Amino acid sequence: MNNGIGKKTVRDIDVHGRRVLVRADLNVPIENGVITDDTRIRESLPTIRYLLDQGAQVIVCSHLGRPKGPDPALSLAPVAGRMANLLGQEVLFAEDCVGPKAEAAVQAMGHHVLLLENLRFHPEEEKNDPEFARQLASLAEIFVNDAFGAAHRAHASTEGVTHYLPAVAGLLMEKEVKYLGALVANPPHPFAAVVGGAKVSSKLPAIQHLLPKVDLLLVGGGMANTFLKAKGYEIGASLVEDDLLDAARAVMRDAETRGVELHLPVDVVVASRFAADAETATVPVGEVPAGWLILDIGPETVRQFANALQRAKAVVWNGPMGVFELEPFASGSFDLARAIAGLNAVTVVGGGETAAVVAAAGLQDRFTHVSTGGGASLEMLEGKTLPGVAALLDA
Ligand code: 3PG
Ligand code: MG
């Protein structure tokens, strides 16, 4: 049976006794040498464990940050340590991802997991240089792409390498594409999209792609300001994209034509300035004081959004409802996260900031799927084909 993603996965090939190169997205936040969020490392473990159980030799590679060349601050060495702890077994580390150091490490790895140094220490990685891709591929016999968070990049380790090795999806990649692609393309109804975040401009393609598929569209976050202004509300000194007022009007008209129930904020948390210690108030959308900023949705909006979502059988959520990093403007995002987590529905969270909201609220286990991708999950919601997925063998 087709797995719904249209691509071969690790389950479809025999890896026993083979050297397998796994591209993971181990691009985790590191502050002063300390990993502050290891979600992406943990999410990469099922594929690694599966391959080990099948008797494969597992070589893992990833990028970290955006170095312009070798940069000790962006070494993956600390990730090897954390991966070993989480895996409960030793993880060897190679100081380069290609060339003599990588080759020697592969020769010596035996049945240990081997993590290669940051791919982006070589500019050829991002250039998708064929010779670099060939060198990387030469370390293994099979390629597994589990780096959903980097699948929107056509780099040597996500695309180039597939020209030299049989290439299949890892288990995380499969799960991500299933929930952000297959589910969104063919959802159970009623299907709801909740979109937020600062800017309409960054979410417009996703909204346009989702509109024909959804029954409910809920808009919050800074981007709702542009919709409110387009409807004639005074929004004070709030963030707005004046060049997109017509686009917002078009979305509202399109929603109406298609019979999509569109919800905008009815009340908002406003502040005298953009700061945690600013003067704040909760007001109906028609009463934003001149010079003040809308920084969160209000409690009545949360109530209405939660109510509307009650009938949804599937919900996809991308973008926070307010400036959740600042405590006075976090309730909208956290309360909505709790409401969505409590639904009897398939609940999918696009990655990046929205995943951070869910993690900060401690709710990650109460969603059906929380994406590990930021840009990649947004591109999936835009209906784009990701180069890292397209390059894999068809099922
Ligand atoms: C991410 O964190 O968004 C992914 O790891 C991709 O990283 P990039 O945006 O630097 O390509
Ligand atoms: Mg990014």
From TrEMBL:
Residues reported in the UniProt entry to bind ATP: K203, E325, G351, G352, E353, T354
Gene3D superfamilies: Phosphoglycerate kinase, N-terminal domain
Source species of the chain: Tepidiforma thermophila (strain KCTC 52669 / CGMCC 1.13589 / G233)
Protein location: Cytoplasm
One CC-aspect GO term: cytosol
Annotated EC: 2.7.2.3
Catalytic activity reported: (2R)-3-phosphoglycerate + ATP = (2R)-3-phospho-glyceroyl phosphate + ADP
HAMAP family with a match to the protein in the record: Phosphoglyc_kinase
Keywords tagged on the record: ATP-binding, Cytoplasm, Glycolysis, Kinase, Nucleotide-binding, Transferase
Entry annotated with the keyword Nucleotide-binding: yes
BP GO terms, sorted: gluconeogenesis; glycolytic process
InterPro entries in the record: Phosphoglycerate_kinase, Phosphoglycerate_kinase_CS, Phosphoglycerate_kinase_N, Phosphoglycerate_kinase_sf
Pfam family, one: PGK
SUPFAM superfamilies linked: Phosphoglycerate kinase (SSF53748)
Protein name according to UniProt: Phosphoglycerate kinase
Pathway assigned to this chain's UniProt record: Carbohydrate degradation; glycolysis; pyruvate from D-glyceraldehyde 3-phosphate: step 2/5
Subunit structure, as described in the record: Monomer.
Record-listed (2R)-3-phosphoglycerate binding positions: R40, R120, R153
One GO MF term: ATP binding
The family this protein is said to belong to: Belongs to the phosphoglycerate kinase family.
Residues that, per the record, bind substrate: D25, L26, N27, R40, H63, L64, G65, R66, R120, R153
